[in-house]
Amino acid sequence: MALNSRYEIRVKGTLDGRWTAWFEDLQVISDGGETVIAGPVADQAALHGLLTKVRDLGLFLISVRHFDPD
Q1: DSSP states of 20-61 as a string?
Q2: How far is CA 55 from the centre of its chain?
Q3: Angstrom distance (rounded) from CA 68 to CA 24
Q4: Closest to 9 in 3D by CA, of 67, 68, 63
Q5: Cα distance between residue 24 and residue 34, in whole Å
Q6: Which residue pairs, CB below 8 angstroms and at least 24 apart, start in 54-57?
Q7: What is the pTM of this model?
Q8: Tell me, what DSSP letter sits at residue 3?
Q9: Is 13 in contact with 34 (CB distance < 8 Å)?
Q10: Alpha-carbon gap, residue 11 to 27, rounded angstroms
């Protein structure tokens, strides 16, 4: 995986703005039914760390999508 690949993590429900700091420099956008956490992720260890935060918040994971840097 290339450094700083872009990922989109989609979870069910609305993630309150106070949790945005948990996801550091990533965008957190809620539309009422789902929340998208998106942005550059340094490596697989960082991705797993984000997924651990999703789990720790008790969020229902819908999908994880990787975007090619091209």
Answers
A1: GGGGTTSEEEE-SSEEEEEEEE-SHHHHHHHHHHHHHTT--E
A2: 11
A3: 21
A4: 63
A5: 19
A6: 54/9, 54/11, 57/15, 57/19, 57/22
A7: 0.86
A8: T
A9: yes
A10: 13
pLDDT grade, residue 70 (50/70/90)?
low
Q: How far apart are CA 56 and CA 67, in angstroms?
A: 25
**Helix, strand or coil for residue 1?**
coil
Q: Within a 10 A sphere around the Cβ of 41, how many other Cβ atoms? A: 22
pLDDT digits (tens, 9 = 90+) for 6-50: 999 999 998 877 777 888 889 999 888 999 999 999 999 999 999
SS3 assignment, position 10? strand
Strand pairing report for 5-12 and 61-67: antiparallel
